[in-house]
Amino acid sequence: MDERAVAQLAAVHDVLYDPQLVDDATRLLTEARRADVLIVRNRTQVQGALLAALGQCKLVGRLGVGLDNIDVSGCAAKGIQVIPATGANALSVAEYVMASAMLLLRGAYASTQAVATGQWPRNALSNGRETAGQTLGIIGFGSIGQTTARLAQGLGMKVMAFDAMLQPDAPVFSQNGVCFAGLDELVSQADVVTLHVPLVDTTRGLFNAARIAAMKKGAVLINTSRGHIVDLAAVAAALQSGHLGGAAIDVFDVEPLPANAALQDCPNLLLTPHISGVSLEANERVSFMIADKVLESLK
């Protein structure tokens, strides 16, 4: 959490700020029992024993938007309000998506070592694709999906979107100049598919081997949402066969990701450690949004 936001809280309330607390389960439970507010990122599991320990807690602030690490219904049953930082990191994720898409479509940015050693792979790297004119398919059209759409349109991309929670005629699509598409239609037509959905029963395993096989040959897949939504073994196989033109994966079933030889040998694959929504500016926005909401709720 941005330390200026921590200081804003500490000026009014007693605050324990310890980024290592998540790794000390015994101490975490002890501190949780006397907490009126708990502020967490994605690694802290607010369920089970920790939720039971929250005897006087009124509010859980989430430094981010995903709530799969929080038992929201369990919190509600105990009268605990859960507040995510909705929208505060949308630009950070959207920029990550567009940068990854441009890098993977062009395919020309992994040549530094070769060029520095005297090689000249000009012919091999002259068949990259421009971003303008490509079709971006967005699955999940909340604040992150909408921000991504605006950036993509600024680069000349065509944009289609699907959201299981929205009707095809929902105003948000026309307001953003985006064409609604069914899931199967989007998967088969998009040159780049980006995922912005929560991890729930209906999205678990959403991009399995069959759905990846249904993607356009040479398409790019980007997942910044949650692990368990994309089958990484299927992604690796599709990259190795050339069916997928590239993939960028920022979230994993287990984090940190255990060593995986199949992923180490994959072409056109970008792996990042769950940082798409964590830029310097996004962390400031997220931190101050949650600090402000905590202060307001405790008045």
How would the blueprint of this fold be written?
Blueprint: H1 3-10, H2 25-32, E1 37-40, H3 48-53, E2 59-62, H4 72-77, E3 81-84, H5 90-106, H6 112-116, E4 135-139, H7 143-154, E5 158-162, H8 171-175, E6 179-180, H9 183-189, E7 192-195, H10 209-213, E8 219-223, H11 232-241, E9 244-249, H12 261-264, E10 269-271, H13 280-297
Parallel strand pairs: 1-2, 2-3, 4-5, 4-7, 5-6, 7-8, 8-9, 9-10
Helix pairs in contact: 1-13, 5-7
Explain this structure.
With 299 residues, the protein is α/β, with parallel strands linked by helices. It has two domains: 3-88 and 280-297, Rossmann fold (3-Layer(aba) Sandwich); 90-271, Rossmann fold (3-Layer(aba) Sandwich), CATH 3.40.50. It has 13 helices and ten strands. The strands form two sheets. A seven-stranded parallel beta sheet has the order 6-5-4-7-8-9-10, sandwiched between helices. Strands 1-2-3 form a three-stranded parallel beta sheet. Helices cover 37% and strands 14% of the residues. The chain is globular and about 65 Å long.
Descriptors for this entry?
alpha/beta, Rossmann fold, 3-stranded parallel β-sheet, 299 residues, globular
**From the helix content, strand content and strand pairing, which structural class follows?**
alpha/beta
SS summary, helix count: 13
What is the H level of CATH, i.e. the homologous superfamily of the largest domain?
A: NAD(P)-binding Rossmann-like Domain
Output the CATH class name of the largest domain.
Alpha Beta
State Rg: 21 Å
CATH topology of the largest domain: Rossmann fold
